Amino acid sequence: MELSIVIPTFNEKENVRAIVRRIEQALASVPCEYEIWFIDDSRDDTPDALAALAADNARVHFVHREHERGLGTAVVEGFRRSRGRFIVVMDADLQHPPELLPTILQRLRDGIDVVIPSRFVPGGSDGGLNAFRKLVSWTARKIGQLAIRRLRSISDCTGGYFGLHREVIRDARLNPIGWKILMEVLVHGHYETVHEIPYAFQARDAGESKMSLREQWNYLKHIGRLLWSSPEDRRFYVFCMVGALGVVVNLVMMSICLYLLHIRTVAWASILSSCVAMIHNFLWNDRVTWGKQHAHPVKWRRALQMPTFILVSSVGIAITALVAHVFHLLHWHALVGQCLGIIIATAWSFTANNRFTWGTQSDNREQVKRTIRVTHE
Ligand code: GDD
Ligand code: MN
What is the pLDDT of residues 112-134, one digit of tens each? Predict the structure, then answer.
């Protein structure tokens, strides 16, 4: 079997016959052995429609889940049941045009690991959504891309139309909450190349969308879980948390210096507090953020880790001061400049520490290997 088409359905009785017909038309001229798997959670008589389809078409298979619901888990069920070397996931309601299937199949045959029809590359459009849904969809996508590095270079990471080699998900722990199974695949799958094909998201003719406030909440929960299970992103958030804790330590130390130790020179009290905070941050980052496996095995290199951290932090302080000063010179608000400076300095110190303080040769090699190439038509 070359291709399995996996289609989740929830109350789609008006659409299932049409989508099978359109898929068969689209693939009529392409020599390809394929199957269609419907994973159905419907509460109406869609299962009867599916049973009738399966009875007179050997390509069509379906499973009805009596007590379960969820688009993401339905697709995972489809991955498990289907047999094709390639898998394409699409919606049942014809908003994802089946006419794209030959191109998706061709790109998979060309050796691309993940093929994503995209609404957001030149030539694509999301015209099938109303203005409000467009805004919600845009916000959701930006949140996902801001939070998870792997999603940044992918223009349509929240869509429900995509193709992949079965190898991509072999041994991948897929445990989606809610709808965004593609994000789950992109974070946990094994792949190196992604190719995007522009398409116009169609309007729905029959039935209605099942998107709800609950699914939007699920989306946020899903992002949280993806963050936590993706080491490269989690490290950055832990680093920020340590930094925030460091500010508290700094302020407490400053109070101790001023009110308990009665240090008169404020500058000295401030420098002392910052040094204590810096050592505090180093220890947490060394033990937790990067952890034991990033301690240098060579003794003298290990001894250099704290000084390197302090050097990196000092450059961060200089960057912040510079940005604040430039704001001041331009007669903009210095506090806004300080905030921007802190953001830039955080990005700098995370990257620099990851590379110089706790980085190892093998990490850098891993990094190169993990780089994903994204192309589009
Ligand atoms: N099995 C199962 N279980 N299927 C479901 C469930 C469920 O709980 N909920 C929805 N589906 C099916 C629908 O029957 C449809 O085939 C597909 O999942 C998408 O649901 P729609 O209700 O049509 O969603 P939409 O059109 O608002 O949004 C879709 O398209 C967007 C653009 O690609 C979704 O795929 C979005 O994730 C996507 O961003
Ligand atoms: Mn739809």
Answer: 999 999 999 999 998 878 888 88
